[in-house]
Structure formats: structure tokens, C-alpha cells
Amino acid sequence: MNKLLASIVPAAMALVIGAGYAFAASYPINKPHEVDWSFAGPFGTYDKGQLQRGLKIYVEACSACHSMDLVAFRTLEDLGYSEGQLKTLAANYEVEDGPNDEGEMFTRTAVLSDYFPSPFPNQEAAAYANNGAAPPDFSLLAKARYVERGFPQFVFDIFTGYNESGPNYIYSLLTGYQEPPAGVEVPEGTYYNPYFIAGPALAMAPPLSDGLVTYDDGTPETVEQYAKDVAAFMMWAAEPHMEERKQTGFMVIIFLAIFASLMFLTKKSVFASKEH
Amino acid sequence: MSSDHSTYQPTSGVGKWIDSRLPLPRLVHDSFVSYPVPRNLNYAYTFGGILMVMLVVQILTGIVLAMHYAADTAIAFESVEKIMRDVNSGWLLRYMHANGASFFFVAVYLHIARGMYYGSYKAPREVLWILGVVILLLMMATAFMGYVLPWGQMSFWGATVITGFFTAFPGIGEPIQQLLLGGFAVDNPTLNRFFSLHYLLPFMIAGVVILHVWALHVTGQTNPTGVEVKTKTDTVPFTPYATVKDALAISIFLMVFAYFIFFMPNFLGHADNYIPADPLKTPAHIVPEWYFLPFYAILRAITFNIGPIDSKLGGVLAMFGSIAVLFVLPWLDTSKVRSAVYRPWYKLFFWIFVANAIFLGWLGAKPAEGAYTIMAQIGTLYYFGFFLVILPVLGLIETPKRLPNSITEAVLAKKGGSGGAATAAASSENRG
């Protein structure tokens, strides 16, 4: 609950630099939009078509800068691809392997058990190529971003089962680039975005534009649609077992409800003859 | 455990043979079957059983998680994600364990509140109470170290902040901190020793729980009236009465627990812990887990120097003091009446104490500045004032309501509807 309560806490023991704290108090400027996700709620499931489109956006528009270290090609079967299709996809990538029997590292074509290779050899290279700010890894981003909801909203969130803060944030950020309002100075090399969680502007240039990625299923090729699809894909990447979790949970709750009812009746009959 | 109520009669030859050599079946029978409990226990008394279940859940899930976890800063974060993605039902184990810690604390805080409300800490149950506070301290240490293991941003920076508390103590502070960390900063040695201790402490908790239950079975349970058991009609056997009531409460508690595991698994955690630890990047807000927030507020409320004690040391002392004061609670409360049911003023101050604890928790998540600091100082003042001033004084000046002569009288008066003022008040508390 701390993440919900803790909208603006400075670190104890002078661990937070003063400036960082002062800024942190009022961002993001705008609250994220609340998108109607197919995976929301206790019975929500991923829309496979949407995940496939999201993957396409990641591959074509994001993967040049953003790694996705924790996602293996084999796991993309969840998106509805066949093994053959995934082998073809993996074959587009080169990964480093070795050492071979001569002690040399070598590159080879990726196979299903490989993970998406990183676009940069290390964090430093990623930061150097991107104006000092290394692009974050995609694997867990949808769970690693949370915009404070405030009291009493975070209490209601328990009952409505609100878990979509991450994808809502990603969608809002991707669609939120705009001209800075009059009088607002944006540092050079950054782009104004009132949905950015840590300041008025971020180092990432607007990554999407209408028609950037071709969809072959007739879905509109707009920034808004792209943002939705890639955010949904990132939610899957961060929480690949969500559907299994919710299905198991439903059965567990049903079981416990029946068990508790039986315990209630047993308790009633045990105590029936005893004033207590 | 006391054998005066022992009704165990081994029937088989093997049973008799065992009973005359190692009467373990007799011990279990006497402790959990024929053991007499007050007949008027309400649902507030079920949290002991719930806590027992939670300890077992944590140990079992923890042992399996430890088979897959690697305590090395280079791979700890990925090993946790491996559990989440590739280990069979790994996501379930980890979400059970992480949310289990939170629900362990939910149950223990309710258990402690019940003890305070019904005066369970008073003679002759002081040792029972103190053992409980020891368990609370062990739980806090275990939870803190467990939170460091996933090696996310909050793990790393939480560990840095909390071990930093020790540097407030002059002279011995820094050596203690370096001993805890295994170096000058949170790093691989810290993670390794925290993992080792995180595995050890739950078994120490289990050991103290045995002492806690032993002490309980020596003195017997309290009950909502606070009147001691006097005759056999005041009690019912543990099985089936307490067993079935505990079973019902446990299943309802597990339902709420399951809702969080399966439908809100990350609600009680911090999003930043899904970012790998980065010693060069301080998160904008470092906050402890929710169950530490009231103590965190007390820590930060001390913003002024008191004589030779600077504000940093003062804050740390206040925080440790807020737990330490619980050890002497049995001697701070001067009232001879146990239950708040018969203490109208104590009841009022108790509920203010509860509200104040929640208030401090809210403040623990707010920035320590301006009005928040003043509110935290007021909250801290009430926290300590409750124990150090209100409890000792109230016992001397408060006029309690008339106590029932026995548990049976209280129960029958409630059912008969002919009780006086005292028993009428009691009835509203005894439902269940």
C-alpha cells in the first residue's frame, strides 16, 4: 500500500537530493488516461491480436533503443504464434554465443530458447547513444510505473481491482507529447510531455507517428492505436501468467467460499447447544 | 502444558505403550483437543490461529522459493523474474510469499489490538505478552530483510536507509552498520547475509511461538469480560468449539488473502521494486513497506535536538522506543480491570490510539515537511502519551463498570436479556 500512500515522500537521512525531491512533488502534470483494457478486471484476458500488433510495434519502432531482456522467443507462443512462425521471427536476430572449442565467442542465429537481444552492449553504451539517459528495459516496465492515485481513490482501487496503472501510464505518455505551454522552458534535447512521471519533459523523442507501422488486419494505423497496442503488449511482457493467475484465483475463491460456508454451518451446529 | 484437565485415554496397545514412554499424543490431545477455553471467546480471538497458518504459509512458500532464488547482486533480480516466468507456479509462490508478509502483519496488528483492548497483557500473562512482542520484532527484521532479496530499487535503497539508522548512535553506530552490511555500503555481502538471516529468523519465530503458546496454556486464555475462568461451566473444550470457530475465521481470512494474491498481487508492493537496483540512481521517494509506515512517521517526527541528543538520534530512539514501550506495557497499565468493555474511558483512548496509528501510517507516506511534520509530532506525542501518561493515570482515576461475577453469568445475562448496565455493555462485545 505504501506505493499508493507514498505520493511524495522524501528519503530519510538526507538520501534524496533536494532538487529531485522538489520536482517529484508535482509530476506527472496530468493524470494518466484510463483506457478500457481487455485484460482489466477479474475475468480479463489478453487480446491476442492486440498483443501481436504490440509486438510488431516493439520490433519495428522500439527495439532499436529499448531492450527486452527477460522475454524469450519461446514465450511468444502465448500471443498465438505457431512454433514455425516463432522460429522465423527468432531467425531475424543474431545472438552472441560461445566460447567455441577454440575459445572464441561467435554470433549465431537466434533460436526459440534465446531472449530478445539488447540493442546496446551495455548500459553505458545505451546512455551514451541516447543523450545520457539509457532507455529502460521493456520487460517489466508495465509493472514498474505507477502514478499515485491518492486518497481515497487507492482504497476504491482495491474493490474495483485496478491494476492497469502501468499500461495507462505508457499509453498516456506515448500519446501525450505536445507543444510546451507559453512560458515553459524545455531543456534542449528533451520533449515536453505533461504525462511524464518525473518532470515536464523527457529525453525520448516522440517515438510513434501515424502510419509508422503497417497493420495487416485493418486496424487503424494511428498513434493512439499504436500506443494502446504496445502498452497491452508490455503488460503481457511484464505479467505473462496473468490469465492463468486470474483463472486459478477464481477457482480458489469459489473453493474457499464453499469451504467457509461449510465451516459456518458446522460452527453453528457445534455452538447451537451452548450459550456463548 | 498443564495436565490437570487431561482426559486422554489411549485405547490401543500401541497408544498405551507410547503414552508411558513419550506422551506426545497426550500433549497434543491436552493442548488442542481437551484444552479448556472460555466459552465466550469472540472472533477477535481467532487471530492466533490465523497467524499460525500464515507462519506456515510463509515458511513453506519461502523454502520452495529459496530453491530457485540466487543471492548474488548480479543475478538476484533475474532469478526472481525466472521464478515469475519459468518456474512451475513460481508466480503463485512468489505472490503468496510477498502478499503473505503483508497479511501476516495485518493479522499480527489485529492480534495485538485485541490484546490491548481486552487487557490480555495483565498479570499473570506478562511473559506471554513479552514473548509476543519478541515475535513482532523478529517478524519486522524478517520482513525487512526479505524485502531486500529481490534486489530492486526499493530493496537496495530501503536497506541503505534502514541500516543507516544505526549510524545515529555515537561511537558504536558505524561499526554496527558495517557489521550489518558486511562493508561500507549495501552490496553483495549484505545481500548474502540478509538471505541467510531471512532463512534463519522464521525458525526463531517458530521457536518463540512455541514458548508463546506454552505460556498461553499455563495461564489460560483471557476472554472479552476479562474475568478469569472460575468453574468448569465457564469453559468449553478447545475441540470442537475453538477449532471450528478458528477454521471459519481462517477460511474467511484466506479468502481476502487470495483476492490479493490472484487479483491485486502488486497493490501492496512498490512499483519501483520492478526496477533492478541501481546504486547510482536514488529513487525520488524511498518508503518502507506499508506495515512500517507508522514507525517511519515516528522516526521522522523528531526534527529537533533534545539536549545532547541530535534530531537524527532522537528519531531513531523514538522509533525503537515505540516498540520497546510495548515490553513494559503490563506495568504501565495500573488498572485492575482487564477488559475495555468495563472501562469506558480506556475504551475511548484505545480507539483514539487505533485511529492515531492509522493516521501515523498515512503520515509515514507523506513528505516530512510543514504541516505533515507537525501532525506527525502530535501523533507521536499521543502514541507515547497513551502508554506513558494515559494508561498509568487512567487506572488510578477511572471508575470501571460493574464486572460480572463469572463468564457464565455474563453469557447467560446476555442471552436472557436481563442483564444490568454492565452485562448489557458486555453483550455488544461478546457477539460471536
What features would you highlight for this structure?
heterodimer; A: mainly alpha; Cytochrome Bc1 Complex, Chain D, domain 2; two-stranded antiparallel sheet; globular; B: 432 residues; mainly alpha; Cytochrome Bc1 Complex, Chain C; 2 domains; 64% helix
Helix-strand pattern of chain A, N to C? HHHHEEHHHHEEHH
CATH superfamily of the largest domain in chain B: Cytochrome Bc1 Complex, Chain C
Judged by helices, strands and strand pairing, the structural class of chain A is: mainly alpha
The CATH architecture term of the largest domain in chain B is Up-down Bundle
CATH topology (level 3) name of the largest domain in chain B = Cytochrome Bc1 Complex, Chain C
Organism (chain A): Hoeflea halophila
InterPro entries (chain A): Cyt_c-like_dom, Cyt_c-like_dom_sf, Cyt_c1
Keywords (chain A): Heme, Iron, Membrane, Metal-binding, Signal, Transmembrane, Transmembrane helix
Protein name (chain A): Cytochrome c1
What does this molecule look like?
The complex is a heterodimer of chains A (276) and B (432). Chain A is 40% helix and 4% strand. Chain A has 276 residues and is mostly helical. In chain A, helix 3 (48-62) crosses helix 9 and helix 8 runs antiparallel to helix 9. Chain B has a two-stranded antiparallel ribbon with strand order 1-2. Chain B has 2 domains: 30-221 and 233-278, Cytochrome Bc1 Complex, Chain C (Up-down Bundle); 287-397, no CATH class. Chain B contains 17 helices and 2 strands. With 432 residues, chain B is an all-alpha fold. Chain B is globular, with a radius of gyration of 24 Å. Chains A and B meet through helix 1, helix 2 and helix 10 of A and helix 4, helix 5, helix 7, helix 10 and helix 11 of B.
Secondary structure layout plus pairing:
The complex is a heterodimer of chains A (276) and B (432).
Chain A: H1 2-5, H2 18-24, H3 48-62, H4 83-90, E1 94-97, E2 106-109, H5 123-129, H6 141-144, H7 153-160, H8 165-175, E3 191-192, E4 201-202, H9 223-238, H10 242-271
Helix pairs in contact in A: 3-9, 8-9
Chain B: H1 13-19, H2 24-32, E1 36-38, H3 47-68, H4 76-85, H5 90-117, H6 126-148, H7 153-164, H8 173-181, H9 188-219, E2 235-237, H10 238-263, H11 293-301, H12 311-327, H13 329-332, H14 344-364, H15 370-397, H16 407-416, H17 421-430
Antiparallel strand pairs in B: 1-2
